[in-house]
Amino acid sequence: MNPEVSAVTDRIIERSRERRAAYLALIERERESGARRPQLGCANLAHAYAGTEEDRDTLRADTGMNIGIVTAYNDMLSAHAVYYRYPELMKVWAREAGATAQVAGGVPAMCDGVTQGYAGMELSLFSRDTIALATAVALSHGTFEGAALLGICDKIVPGLLMGALRFGHLPMVLIPGGPMPSGLPNKAKAAVREAYAEGKAGREELLDAEIQAYHSKGTCTFYGTANTNQMMMEVMGLHMPGAAFVNPGTKLRQELTRAAVHRLAGMGWRGNDYRPLGHCVDERAIVNAAVGLLATGGSTNHLLHVPAIARAAGIVIDWEDFDRLSRAVPLIARVYPNGAADVNAFEAAGGMPFVIRELLSAGLLHGDITTVSGDSLAAYADKPAIVDDRLTWQPVGDSGDTSILRPVGEAFSPDGGMRILAGNIGRACIKVSAVDKERWVVEAPARVFHDQLDVLEAFKRGELEQDMVVVVRFQGPRANGMPELHKLTPPLGVLQNRGFKVALVTDGRMSGASGKVPCAIHCSPEALGHGAIGKIRDGDIIRVDAVNGTLDALVDAAEWLARPLCDAPGAASGTGRELFAMFRGLADEAEKGASGMLAAAGL
To answer: What does the entry list as the binding residues for [4Fe-4S] cluster (predicted)?
Structure first.
C-alpha cells in the first residue's frame, strides 16, 4: 500500500475503534436475535405474504432468500425513471436463483437539477436523512434475508446506505441504472448558460440547450454528485463489477442487473458465502471511496456524504483524512467539469475498470476489501461485456483516450485537487482540480450576501464588476438546510472571464458540477452556529489560498476578536421547509456529515 493511504487508514481505524466495535456487536445481535422470518408469528407472515400469489408457497416453505427491494423510482427524476420495471424483472431473476423478491418500500428521490435556486433546494440535503429513515422503515419488517437498493442520484445513494447500514447484518447490493446517452456537450451547455447570464441569449435558446443536454432517461452525463456516487459504489465493491456507467435499455445493463440478483441470492447466512453489508463497508472501503473521489475529481458533496455514510457504520473520517489523501492520490481522470468529456466518453475510454486497475497497481486502493461480487476488488478491474449472448468480464486494456483517462504514472496532476482551508474565518473545503492554478489564490474585498438570489440581482445591476470575494452566509445545515448554490456558477464564471479575480466563500454547498471558479465551501462553524463567517463585512479583504490551505479575513486581530456577529435572518417557511425544522435544529457540523438524524441518534 501507498504509505500515506496506509497511514490514513490506520488513523481512521484507531479513531473509530470503540464505535466500530459497538456497530459490529449491533449487527451480530440483529442477525442472531433480531426480527426475522422464522421467529415471526403466523399472522405476521400471512400479512407479509398476502400481496403475492406466485411466490406465496415458496415464501411459506422458507427454502430460499427473500430479497427486499428498496426503490427510489419516480419518473420525474430521469436517472430513476429507468427503475419502472426493475422490480417485476428482479422477481423473475430471483426465482431463477431459488429466491423470492418483494418491494419492501419506496424512498423519496428529489432532483436537485429541478430545485436548484428555488425553495425546494432547502429540503435537498435533509432528504438524505428522510431517505435513510424510509429505508429503515422498509427493512424493519424482518421478512427479508437480503436487500437490493435501487438508487443513483445525489442524496439517494448516501441515504439508502445510511439507513441500510443499520441493518448491516443483511447482504445487500446497490443496483444502478446507468447514464443517458450523450446530448449537447456540457461545455456548450455551460457557454449558453453564461451567455444567458450576460443577456446575450434568450430564455428559449437556453431552454433548447438544456433540453438537448438533459434529453432522456438515465443519469445526467456530467461528473457531478450522482455519477460520483456510482464511482464510489464501484471502488467500495457494492455494485456488480463495471455496472456504474452502462447505458439504460441495453442488453448489458439488463444482464448486470440479473447477475446482481443472482449474486445477492447466494450471499445469505444460510450459505457458505455470507457477505453482510456491515462487513463490506469497513474502514478500508471508506478510504477507497475517498481515494476514488480524489483520483477522478468527483463531487465536493461527498465531503459531507462519505463522513455520514461512515458514521452509520461506526467509522469516523474527517476532512484532515481527505486532505492528506488528496496530497498522495494523483488525478487520473478528466471528466466535465474537470475536462471536456462526459461520463459516456469516460466509460468508452476505460471507465471504472481502468481507474481501479491503475489505483490498485499503485497501491492506492485496498484490494482486499469484502466485495459483493464474491471476489476481491481486482475483479472490478475487468470490463463487463456480452459475448455469445452471455455476460462475461474481460481485461480493460489501455486508456482509449488519454485526454480523459491516464495511467497513474502519467497523471493529469500529482494530487487529487481537494484542499482543506483553515484560518480566522473557520474551516472550509475547496476543489481545485478544475481551477486554473493562477486562480488558486484570490485576495480581494468581500461582498457579503445572505441569499444567492441577491447575488444574481447585484450581478444584473452591474454592481459586481470588480475583483472580489463573494460571501454568501446563513446557507449552512442549521440555517436553511445547506442548499447548493449552483445558480452562482454562470455569473461568477462570466466575471472571471472578464478578467476579474473572483472567489466564493460560503457555509453552504456548491453543485457537484462546480468547476472553474475557486469556491471555499462548507465553511464551519456556520454563521448560525456562531461561526466567524458571520463577522465578515463588505470591504474586508479576504484571502482564499488553496496553495497554503488558508482562509482568512485580513482584519486586525484585536478588531476581529471584538467584532460582533451579524444578525441572522428569520427561518423561511413554505414549500414544506417548516417541516424540516427538527433536522435543521439537530444538524451537526459539515465535517461530521451535516446530519440531524445521526446527531439525534448519538452516532
So the answer is: 153, 220
